[in-house]
Amino acid sequence: MDHRIGCVHRHQEDSHLVFRLPEVVNLIVQYLVKDYDTSSPSKPLFDWIYPCLFVNHLWHDCAARNMYRTITFGQGQHDLNAFQNLVSTLGQHTTAPLQMSPASLAIGNKDSFPMMDPYHIDTSLPNTINENELDDPRISVYRRSVRHLTLYKVKDDSVTDKLMCLSKQVRRIEHLELYICEPIIDSAVQPFVMAGHLTYLSLAGSFQVTDKLIHAVAKHCPRLQHLDLRACSEISDDSISSVALHCPRLEHLNVGRIKERHRITSRSINLIAENTQVRVLGFAGCDLDDECMIRLAVHRNRYMERISVNNCHRLSNASIRAFAKYCTKLSVFEMKECHLIDDWDTVAQLVERKVLLTLCEQQNRACAQWAKTNGRIIRVKAPYK
């Protein structure tokens, strides 16, 4: 054993200084991640950075941080098991040494993990002989490294308890996306919100969340930039008004819905227009009026990029004219089923500006008929979904 450790020490001493500097090693690992993103997306991420775990503690920590920074789990039992493994590892209290090697902890489930950020780097020799113990400081490094967490279409009822367990230890989440995770309730998300680091929160399809949670977001997450509450029909003007008043950096808001249209009205969206930096808005199925849309167009003018008002039945030509006039950098205007909007000349102007539009069949026919009658050619293009 002494002979093996001595060999490793001599190898470290012989290696160039550049490969023993934390900043340089982290850059090397980051480039491996970039290569994965661009050169061979079908190749597992860990085939690129897995060997870095076994060089020494410095390389191990840099690699592990990049693997833990962004974590994504999809639907299916395989990913659910992987998520359970993550929760078991990072969510538990580690008063005693864990019976898990540094390498296996770092990679979690090799098929279901990704990426991270470098501070508190340990350059001492890794225990390559006996890897059965891992101290609390190392676990803390992994917990602090997680910045992005995404769960995609998780239907298992246990996901709420798992998230609550994880949130007790993983406290630096900035990007939380729970996409169509129907079992999610307020208490599963609240600890991440209370930590105060969120800049991106997507709860699209999590229809059980309520205004109570979004009020907490407004109170504790003043740096919030992205809020996606599609199909969260319990969310109302009350909490969105609070977000408008306390999250001035907000750039993306989506409160589109199929049910409970009366819960989102001009009362809260007027405040969004006046107090935030919104560029992208989703209002499909909300109960908005022309006055609100005009206020949005005037206040956000050249900064507005995309807006969806599909199924906003009260909107008329005044709305689309305001956006055509004031929003010079508009790239997407979705107006499906807005049958009071029939100013096809304004639509033609937007098409000429390369604005992508979404129309229903009835609107497409009416637009085509107008173009034929007026000797115009209008090729409406819808945005990619």
UniProtKB/TrEMBL annotation:
Pfam families: DUF7885. Residues 169-363 form the F-box/LRR-repeat protein 15-like leucin rich repeat domain. One of its GO terms (biological process) is SCF-dependent proteasomal ubiquitin-dependent protein catabolic process. SUPFAM superfamilies: RNI-like. One of its GO terms (cellular component) is SCF ubiquitin ligase complex. SMART domains: LRR_CC (SM00367). This is F-box/LRR-repeat protein 15-like leucin rich repeat domain-containing protein.
